[in-house]
Structure formats: C-alpha cells, structure tokens
Amino acid sequence: MEYSVQPKIDKNSKIAVLCGGMSSEREVSLRSGKNCHSALLRLGFKNPVIVDVDENITEKLKREKIEYAYNALHGKYGEDGCIQGLLEILKIPYSGCGTMSSALCMNKEYTKKILSTAGIPLIKSVFIRKGGDILEAVKDLRYPMMIKPVSEGSSFGMSKVEDEAELLKAVEEAQGYNPDVLIEEYLVGICATVGVLENEGETFATEILELRPKNEWYDYEAKYTKGLTEFVLPAELSEEMTKRVKEIAVKSHKLADCSGVSRVDFHIVGDIPYVLEINTSPGMTDTSDLPAQAACMGIDYNTLVLLILNSVGLNK
Questions:
Q1: Whether residue 222 is found in the same domain as residue 110
Q2: Fewer Cβ atoms within 10 Å of its own Cβ: the N or the C terminal residue of the chain?
Q3: Per residue in 87-109, pLDDT tens?
Q4: Known catalytic residue: 283?
C-alpha cells in the first residue's frame, strides 16, 4: 500500500522541533528530536530549529518566532499534556495528541479505566497511591507481578517481583519516579507493539512488531541497546490475531481521543491480546519501534515525520 503525503503547512514556516525536556526520558528525546529535525530538512522545510525544552520554553518560542511545533518530547512535561496546554495558550499549532489525550494516556491507570468501558482486554491489576496498604491491595493478585510507576515511560522504575519482600522494595523504588503505582499480574506471552497513524482522515495501524528481549522482560536496557532485543517484523502471529490486534489498536487510539500518532503496546497471552498502554509521543530514534513498523509497510522515515507534522491543528 502506498501513501501519498503532501505537506499541510508552508515549507518556509518556522518550525520548532521540541525535544530534550525535563523528564527521565530526556536523552531519548534528544535523539528523537535530532532525527526528526534532519528529516524535516530532507523534506525541504527551510526553517526547522531544534528547541531544548526547559523552564524558559515560552521565551525561546517567542524569540524564535515559532509558527508550528513538532513534538519530539517523551515523558513528563512533554507527553502528559503540559507542553500541549502551553502551546495552546501561545496559539502555536503542534503535532500529535492534544492536551486531554496526552494527560490521559500518560496515566496507565486512567487509560485502563477508559479502555475498560469498551471491553478492551486488560491484565488484572491494582492501583496504589502513596501511603496505601500495599499488601491489602494485592491480596487478589498472583505472583509474579510487575510494578510500574503510573506515569512514566521507557520502563523507568519498573520491576518484576516474586514475593512480598521484593514487592515492598519495588513499590518504594517505583514511587521514587511517581507516588502512584500500578501493579499487574505478570503473564508469560508475546510482547508486541503497533503504531497508529492518520492520513487524510483515515486512521490506520502499522505492521505489528513482536519484541523478543534477551533480558527477562522488555526493560530500558533492552529497549535502547542494540542487539539486546530481537525485532520480528511483521510479528509472527496468525492472520486472525494480526487483524484483531490492529483493530484493537485503532479502537484504543480513538477511545483515548488520540490524534496524528500513537503506539499501542500489547502482551498477547494465548488468544487474548491485552493492551498495556498507549504512547502518545513514540520514540523516533534509530532503534525506536514506530519508524521500523512504518518502514515495514512502505512508509520511510521522512514520510513518517511528514505524516506526524501534518497533524498540527487537528488535536483540539
């Protein structure tokens, strides 16, 4: 399938590629931003500039007379609705998901609540706030379990635990990243992810990427170290499961009111494709999932960047 993509904005426009930022994913975002900036230059845009986001971001955007923002930020302040709200106040159209969907999807617990209303398969879990009774909360869950900060990316603060002692220690570690923690049952299955893109009013899924980490699970090291994860693309799934995963990904994207781009992560156990989370600003590094998924269906990196850029102004 071929995609004819034409730019929606003038190539002389002043575009800020927002990256870096103040989250634990800063280094990943800098790599994403550099790649996206290079792609915009290759596409013929005359005035893209890399803007490292910090407390002086408003001043920077005004000084550069920015007309549009390409969001290559990941994590807190960039993927949680904060930068989106600021850009709306400044009346600067931006790429990707809007304020509400960004805030929603950054919180794994609230994402689950929205998806559960439509019968999306979800792994059994509990949500714990700072000071909550951890052992009481997990009494109906089975070991092993996965501990996750509720609003964090790139597997920061995540742990697999086998018993009560490991559980209490892991929750404390996770709360160093976020006071709210999600605890899920650990299930053995297939780790997979699929991108969702939009073009001319059509919302579609990319090819599915199956991830086979050499570590026990898909942690930060496995995500960003070449050679530590085997990428199977397209995923070795049945035709029926492939269709189902893609349909659920698009449905989840729409339920969360995402726009332009997202990446939906799955854990497939038997014949059940559980949704883990929705990423509203997927990585765009050399080892990131979304560019590989897009390339597998004939969308090269430049075209992918243009598709995402074309979402400016659609995220209201």
A1: yes
A2: N
A3: 999 999 999 999 999 999 999 99
A4: yes
Contact status, residue 13 vs residue 45, Cβ threshold 8 Å: yes
Report if residue 4 sits inside a domain: no
What pLDDT is recorded for position 2? 63
Is 263 among the residues known to form the active site? yes
User: Which position among 32, 95, 252, 279 bears the catalytic label?
Assistant: 279
**Predicted pLDDT at 151:** 84
Claim to verify: residue 115 and residue 155 sit in the same structural domain: no
Set 47, 263, 288, 301: catalytic member = 263
User: Is 25 annotated in the active site?
Assistant: yes
Q: Is the preceding omega at residue 234 within 30 degrees of 0, hence cis? A: yes
One domain, residues 74 and 222: no
Domain that holds residue 244: 104-121+188-309
Pull the structure tokens for residue 237: 């799934």
Asked if 224 is an active-site residue, the reply is yes
Unique residue bearing structure tokens 């075209």: 303
Per-residue tokens: 298: 């004939």
What's the rounded Cα separation, in Å, for the pair 161 and 143? 7
Q: What is the pTM of this model?
A: 0.91
Which is the catalytic residue, given 79, 80, 180, 277? 277
pLDDT < 70: residue spans in the chain: 1-2, 153-155, 217, 219-220, 223-224, 316
Distance of CA 235 to the CA centre of its chain: 19
pLDDT in tens, 30-60: 999 999 999 999 999 999 999 999 999 999 9
Told to judge if 265 belongs to the known catalytic residues of this protein, a careful annotator would answer yes
